[in-house]
Amino acid sequence: MTVTARTIVLAARPVGKPKPSDFRMESAPLHDPGPGEVLLQVLWLTLDPYMRGRMSEGPSYAAATELGKSLPTEAVARVLVSMDPGFQVGDVVAVHDLWRDHMIRKGSELRKLDPLAAPVQTALGVMGMPGMTAYTGLKHIGKPKAGETVVVGAASGAVGALVGQIARIGGARAVGLAGGAEKCAYVVNELGFDACIDRNAPDMAAQLAAACPKGVDVYFELTGGAIFDAVLPLLNPFARVPVCGTIATYNATSLPDGPDRTPLLLRSILTKSLTFRGFIVGEFWGDAPEFYKAMAGWLAEGRVKYREDVTDGLDRMVETFIGMLEGRNFGKTLIRVAE
Ligand code: NDP
């Protein structure tokens, strides 16, 4: 069986906001799978904000994607041909891969999924990397106690939605920020946060202060920017700040205007004994079995809810990525590549 793989590659390094011409679709036939290899058809691909970082050169925790090469993602895929005795035609697997619709991979690189246990695409969201991020960032760094107040931005998104729900399971108050009234209504009414503030409201900082009458004990940093500025004065002594993402700055080409607020930040850290701790979820990958068990239980009990923002077709992956960075997604951003 000769299969042609369509692959999206990086054609140019985006300057500021990515544009469609920064990417290119290529097609190439795949070789037949050899011993130990498996031919896979991609069903789902995930889009995550960290991918913006791979498009730019400069110091980071991972190397930039070379021009002409494809970008990282995680895929859920179906086995079309198997030369590995551990996999049968029709098996569904999760695999770290590229922005493409077919691939040949070694069986040893695949994680088999049970389609009866959960919708397979949840391996890319609530039961996958974003879920792990929320769970481990709270467990190891945020450490919310019952009665404490936890604040998170991008609260209707893949990570933020879970941060607030997990915090509430532990007895904390959860206050979210999200872009617009519809997302905020969902965060409170569906996800059960105690409050959610529209990050675009002119009086956002005042509304946030009113929603946190006892201050903020854990700020799960996903956004940076105006939300960080509003939270900083509200942090209580000994507050913890898992620094997980700063999406407000991912398309920035220079530092923001205005007075240098570094002295304010340092004074706050010192005088309030604050803990800021950055992390990349891979650091805590050893917690995966514990996380899968906990999250599967919460989902089964209806204590954690999630929402997916699904776009059909590899052809629409680039526009969907650009939109996600602008907040156009409402829930975990997924590309359904094939039924
Ligand atoms: P989301 O599903 O939350 O999608 C991104 C959201 O960011 C948008 O929907 C938008 O939500 C919000 N956003 C966009 N621009 C801004 C802005 N200028 N200010 C505030 N919010 C903005 O993404 P994820 O949950 O996948 O990721 C959230 C963050 O977590 C990202 O920063 C990401 O890089 C980080 N992350 C870090 C990991 C790690 O290992 N450290 C692992 C996974 C994620 P809205 O319009 O509703 O505000």
Question: How would you characterize the overall build of this protein?
Answer:
The protein has 339 residues and is of the alpha/beta class. The chain has two domains: 3-125 and 306-336, Medium-chain alcohol dehydrogenases, catalytic domain (Quinone Oxidoreductase, Chain A, domain 1), CATH 3.90.180.10; 129-282, Rossmann fold. Helix content is 25%, strand content 27%. The protein contains nine helices and 15 strands. The strands form three sheets. Strands 3, 4, 5, 6, 7, 14 and 15 form a seven-stranded mixed beta sheet that branches. Helix 2 crosses helix 3 (160-169), helix 2 packs across helix 8 and helix 5 (204-211) packs across helix 6 (225-231). The longest helix is centred in the middle third of the chain and has 14 residues, at 129-142. The two termini are 20 Å apart. The chain binds NADPH dihydro-nicotinamide-adenine-dinucleotide phosphate.
